[in-house]
Design goal:
The structure is a single chain. The protein has 2 helices and 14 strands, in the order ββαβββαβββββββββ. It is mostly beta strands. Strand 1 and strand 2 form a beta hairpin. The longest helix has 4 residues. The radius of gyration is 16 Å and the shape is globular.
């Protein structure tokens, strides 16, 4: 058995998964999700925001069976071979709880451990009627990066943080 996984090409994070029976394996992401995959976050008082991931940033993989990815896709990642092709086996990513700080002028991401090489980071932050898409990297042997951002309002925002090698974080963040 296999599962079809939609993942972020820049970081390898799975952001959606489905098990198809009797259907042809998917090879293109747009027939599965359309132009964007909306990830929803509760921001308080019954309100939710949608953080749309553009299909241009996404890819699709027909992976080996991994039941956990259906319930918790952000906890899994796709590993690429040396020539840039995805391997069929999904990886369970290291989890982390703290380390995301939102301010009106930036989003700081701090990981629990430093890596021996640069760690790509992609983040989406809700801001009024738009979604801010941020990208950068944590330098080798360091644990943090601040991604520049201009928010016009304080309060709660929906945030998606994807740091390569670490489980994705989809959360409400309050400007501090």
């Amino acid at each position: 058995m296999s599962v079809t996984v939609v993942y972020v090409a820049d970081t390898g994070h799975a952001v959606g998964a489905l098990a198809l029976t009797g259907a042809e394996a998917a090879t293109d992401v747009e027939p599965l999700i359309g132009r964007a995959l909306p990830l929803r976050v509760a921001v308080g008082e019954g309100g939710t925001v949608s953080l749309p991931l553009s299909s241009r940033r996404l890819a699709v993989l027909n992976a080996d069976d991994e039941p956990g990815v259906l319930a918790e896709p952000l906890a899994f990642g796709v590993e690429l071979t040396a020539d840039g092709k995805p391997r069929p086996t999904l990886l369970r990513l290291a989890s982390w709880r703290d380390g995301v700080t939102l301010a009106t002028n930036g989003l700081t991401v701090e990981l629990p451990l430093a890596a021996g090489r640069a760690t790509p980071v992609v983040a989406l932050v809700s801001g009024g009627q738009e979604t801010h898409v941020l990208a950068g990297e944590i330098p080798a042997q360091q644990t943090r990066v601040t991604l520049p951002l201009t928010l016009e309002s304080a309060g709660g925002h929906g945030v998606l943080v994807l740091a390569a090698g670490w489980a994705g974080r989809l959360m409400k963040a309050v400007v501090g």
